[in-house]
Amino acid sequence: MINFDFKEKCYSCSACAEACPTKAISFDENIHPEIDLQKCINCNRCEKVCIELNKPEDIEELNCIEGYIVKNKNNEIRKVSSSGGVFFQIAQKVLEMDGYVCGCIYDDKFMPKHIVSNEIEICKKMMGSKYVKSDLNDCIVQIKQIVEKGKIVLFSGVPCQVAAVKKCVKSDKLITLAVVCHGSIERKIWKKYLAEEERMSESSIIKVSMRDKTKGCLNYGLKFQFKNGTEHITFRKNDGYFLKCFTDGLFERNRCLSCEYKGQNIMSDLLIGDAWGMEKVCPEFTDSLGCSAVLVLTEKGKKIFNEVEKYFLIRNVDSQEIIRNNPRIILPAPRNTFQKSFEKKLEKSDANIHFWTEKYAKPTILNRIKWKVLGGEN
């Protein structure tokens, strides 16, 4: 039976629940396991698939077959993508091969969850970053069933989720596409933020984008659209305090701050992310919609990428150059000095996340004095 500090060490990958023959494992609101001891038969199948208990010993340098900077030739696709529009084309190709795609969408309450589908319209909903830990629910079971029928499945997720799926699904029909991960936000924090947005707008949310490109790919926005026809958008370099706190590491889950699925431990066929710093390497690619860095990690990844390269403008780039410009590929984000005190503020039932994100997103000397007066740094 898995038995460790789930808040500190659990990757919330759901592999343990998939492996449990008696359905003894469920999850709390942050996808931390809850074990029903009355149902547990101590078969230890959960321990065999747990990516924390079976983690690689060392994080070594990432070895890549090829590295690319790419941007989709279709600007409409890039507008709704986080960066260069790579995922959609690979997903579309897999569907053309009579396959399925497993990726992250928002549920009806705008909480991220993974879903398996062979419909292109559902795959469109998988586009774009969510930044909140997604629920894999029963996707691993579905993927197993599909590959056993001889069909291809493309799984897209962060590296720890890829590791979990590959731990449970042993098949050459599985193609994995990992997304460079900065870390993820606890689900209860996002749920509370959504509730505050609806309360302030006096209307229900109908659409969310965490990477709106109205002001370009570098100053991306968090955009909410409401049923009453209004919208609220904040930009990371201006008043986007929620996004700023996330990128500054204040929202990081404890597990993410010591994540070991980095570098050589990324067990994926392809790895994609923002092409940070590439304006110096290939300035001709620089525009307001952004481009993607693609690292090909396996021959299977190379094969599927070759199938879709006609949709992109592509430049071969030294993979080490890509890694140097995006350290989250090989290292987790460092812990923010104020992360613990920030977390304590948000744990209070009457905490206003909008208020505290603004306070902590402006780490001036004056604000730090205010935090001390308010009891924030303790």
Q: Can you give the mean pLDDT?
A: 92
| Helix/strand/pairing category | alpha+beta
Which H/E pattern describes the elements?
A: HHEEHEHHEEHHEHEHEEEHEEHEHHHH
CATH C-level category of the largest domain: Alpha Beta
* Residue windows where pLDDT falls under 50 for at least 5 positions: 374-378
Second CATH tier, the architecture of the largest domain: 3-Layer(aba) Sandwich
Report, as a whole number of angstroms, the end-to-end distance: 36 Å
Number of helices: 15
CATH topology grouping of the largest domain? Aspartate Aminotransferase, domain 2
Structure write-up:
- It comes from Blautia caccae.
- Residues 1-30, 31-61 form the 4Fe-4S ferredoxin-type domain.
- InterPro entries: 4Fe4S_Fe-S-bd, 4Fe4S_Fe_S_CS, FrhB_FdhB_C, Polyferredoxin-like_ET.
- The chain has 378 residues and is of the alpha+beta class.
- It has 3 domains: 6-49, Alpha-Beta Plaits (2-Layer Sandwich), CATH 3.30.70; 66-184 and 253-329, 3-Layer(aba) Sandwich (Aspartate Aminotransferase, domain 2); 187-251 and 337-374, no CATH class.
- It is built from 15 helices and 13 strands.
- The protein has helices at residues 6-9, 15-19, 45-49, 75-79, 86-96, 120-125, 139-148, 159-168, 187-201, 241-247, 299-308, 319-325, 339-347, 353-361, 365-374; strands at 25-27, 33-35, 66-72, 100-106, 112-117, 153-157, 174-179, 205-212, 221-226, 231-235, 270-274, 292-296, 312-316.
- The strands form 3 sheets. Strands 5-4-6-7-11-12-3-13 form an 8-stranded mixed sheet, sandwiched between helices. A 3-stranded antiparallel sheet has the order 8-9-10.
- The relative contact order is 0.15.
- Mean pLDDT is 92; it is low at 374-378.
